[in-house]
Amino acid sequence: MSFTHLDASGHARMVDVTAKQPTVRSATARGFVRCGPEIVAALRDGTAPKGDVLAVARIAGIQAAKATPTLLPLAHVIGVHRAGVELEIRDDGVAIEATVGTADRTGVEMEALTSVSVAALAIVDMVKGMDKAVVIEDVRIVAKSGGRSGDWVRPGE
User: Fold this and answer.
1) What pLDDT does residue 62 have?
2) Which among 7, 79, 80, 108 is placed 20 to 30 Å from 70, CA to CA?
3) Does 5 map to a domain?
């Protein structure tokens, strides 16, 4: 078995995508921040002590999608042409969904995952003073489109 991110000597390397033609691609990721009822009530009422938690999380997620190659050493620098973060307050926490799009040589799955992860971290940062027991859960890719491998949707999503 060969690994695309290892050279012949077994050293980490960035995959060469120079010869690939840019194509339209997108990826959607989801995650969840589990919170207690006090935090959920504060989010619904807009009374969290640090301010507008959801606005901060949304911007953090968008910014994170664009910063992915600075965080993941083998990720390619690509044009992030679309990044959206949706947040839904539920009775047990906040559901996060990020969709990232590009017209480039490689996919945006890592950008979508990074977006959800950082949006979740921003929520935790904004509410940790209220309850240190919040938990980030189930960050995953739920769909991708474009590229050589085509479209994919996680079963059950």
Assistant:
1) 98
2) 7
3) no
Q: Mean pLDDT by 10-residue block, N- to C-terminus, for the chain (157 residues)?
A: 73 78 95 97 96 98 97 93 98 98 94 98 97 96 94 95
Give the residue among 90, 137, 144, 136 at the shortest CA–CA distance from 112.
Answer: 144
Residue with tokens 């938990």: 135
Q: Are 64 and 114 in contact (CB under 8 A)?
A: yes
Domain boundaries, position 43: 23-148
* Catalytic member of 125, 131, 138, 151: 125
In a domain, 12, yes or no: no
Specify the pairing of strand 93-104 against strand 152-153: unpaired
Single pTM value for the model: 0.92
Q: Residue for token digits 């997620």?
A: 61
Query: Virtual CA dihedral for 105, 109, 111, 114, nearest 10 degrees?
Result: -160
The verdict on whether 104 is a catalytic residue reads no
Q: What is the CATH number for 43?
A: 3.30.70.640
Number of structural domains, the chain?
A: 1
Burial of 118 (0-12, 13-18, 19+ CB in 10 A): buried
